[in-house]
């Protein structure tokens, strides 16, 4: 459904990405921010699903500065390799690349952002710092708690798994306490990565609640 694209960030850096367009006139656009596994099959699938819902969907390859075209699966070995990208993340660079994606689609209507894992954290920070966004949704972003003192400039919705081994519920409670205006959902029994149907931690019950909830949030705020 989609196609590979090239984006240019504010510092002139060119990065890759994936874009999927709806069949008819778009009702808005959604930037999709990857997990630590690159703009892989799953992230492209998320873009395709959003295009089917009527949105222009665009996923910037935010690891291109360190390893162009990196894509990974979810085996234990692949996960170990992918973790190197978050050992010392360059938040400013990832945000520049995210802004490039926003800028590329903002002529198609109101723009939202959704991210998973690392991308969930970036979606939250984008809501506090970037321009031309109207709504943000983050799934199991482990670093969000570190940025919870920063208030999002747009309506923000967050999703966490109750049994996420990397994000203790105390972190989620801290986020809720510091940011009462943010909509936070916790999914009983769900682990990290529960939305991804290609991961061993996929939880269909939780995903089937979270995804429609996300779409409803965008429908409400991307007008």
Structure, explained:
The chain is globular and about 40 Å long. β5 (about 110-115), α4 (about 120-130) and β6 form a beta-alpha-beta unit. It contains six helices and eight strands, in the order βββαβααβαββαβα. The model has no long low-confidence stretch (mean pLDDT about 95). The chain starts with a strand and ends with a helix. It is an alpha/beta fold. It has helices at about 40-50, 75-80, 90-105, 120-130, 170-180, 205-220; strands at about 5-10, 15-20, 30-35, 55-60, 110-115, 135-140, 155-160, 185. The longest helix has 18 residues, at about 205-220.
Report the C-alpha radius of gyration, rounded: 16 Å
Overall average residue pLDDT: 97
Low-confidence stretches: none
Looking across the biggest beta sheet, what order are the strands in? 1-2-4-3-5-6-7-8
* Helical content class: 25-40%
Quaternary structure of the protein = single chain
Question: Which class best fits the helix and strand makeup?
Answer: alpha/beta
Our measurement of the CA-to-CA distance between the termini, rounded to an integer number of angstroms, reads 24 Å
Shape summary: globular
Q: What string, H for helix and E for strand, traces the elements in order?
A: EEEHEHHEHEEHEH
Number of helices: 6
**Strand tally:** 8
Beta-strand content bin:
15-25%
Biggest sheet descriptor: 8 strands, mixed
List the helices and strands and how they pair.
Elements: E1 3-8, E2 14-20, E3 29-33, H1 41-52, E4 56-60, H2 76-82, H3 91-105, E5 111-116, H4 118-129, E6 135-139, E7 156-161, H5 169-178, E8 183-187, H6 204-221
Parallel strand pairs: 3-4, 3-5, 5-6, 6-7, 7-8
Antiparallel strand pairs: 1-2, 2-4
């Amino acid at each position: 459904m989609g196609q590979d694209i090239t984006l240019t960030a504010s510092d002139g850096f060119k990065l890759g990405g994936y874009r999927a367009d709806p069949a008819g006139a778009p009702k808005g656009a959604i930037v999709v921010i990857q997990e630590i596994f690159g703009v892989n099959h799953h992230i492209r699938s998320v873009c395709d699903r959003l295009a089917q819902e009527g949105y222009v969907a665009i996923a910037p390859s935010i690891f291109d500065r360190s390893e162009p075209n990196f894509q990974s699966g979810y085996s234990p070995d692949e996960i170990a390799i992918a973790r190197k990208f978050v050992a010392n993340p360059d938040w400013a660079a990832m945000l520049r690349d995210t802004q490039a994606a926003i800028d590329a689609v903002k002529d198609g209507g109101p723009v939202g952002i959704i991210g998973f894992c690392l991308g969930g954290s970036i979606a939250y920070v984008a809501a506090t710092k970037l321009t031309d966004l109207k709504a943000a949704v983050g799934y199991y972003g482990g670093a969000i708690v570190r940025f919870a003192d920063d208030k999002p400039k747009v309506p923000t919705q967050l999703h966490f798994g109750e049994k996420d081994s990397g994000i203790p519920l105390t972190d989620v409670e801290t986020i809720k306490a510091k940011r009462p205006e943010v909509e936070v959902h916790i999914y009983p029994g769900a682990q990290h990565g529960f939305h991804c149907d290609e991961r061993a931690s996929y939880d269909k019950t939780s995903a089937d609640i979270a995804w429609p909830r996300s779409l409803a949030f965008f429908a409400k705020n991307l007008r």
